[in-house]
Amino acid sequence: MQHQLKVTGMSCGHCVSAIEKAVKGLDPQAEVSVDLEKGEVTVSSDTEFSAISAAILEAGYENQAINA
């Protein structure tokens, strides 16, 4: 399942690493793609959206779903 999120507060490689670590903490097999310019994160994972969103929030980044 693919999840797209709008994430605020990302500005550098450290932010990308923090988000990847948060998501992979839930699902080590997840594929995480971060677009710093757009402030968007795409996650391919069987994990529920709510859990992914909560993990990213816990890492310090506000986020919301992007409706495709």
UniProtKB/TrEMBL annotation:
SUPFAM superfamilies: HMA, heavy metal-associated domain. Coiled coil: none annotated. CDD domains: HMA. Residues 1-64 form the HMA domain. GO terms for biological process: copper ion transport. It holds the Pfam family HMA. Keywords: Metal-binding. GO terms for molecular function: copper ion binding. It comes from the Bacteria. This is Copper chaperone. It comes from Marinobacterium lutimaris.
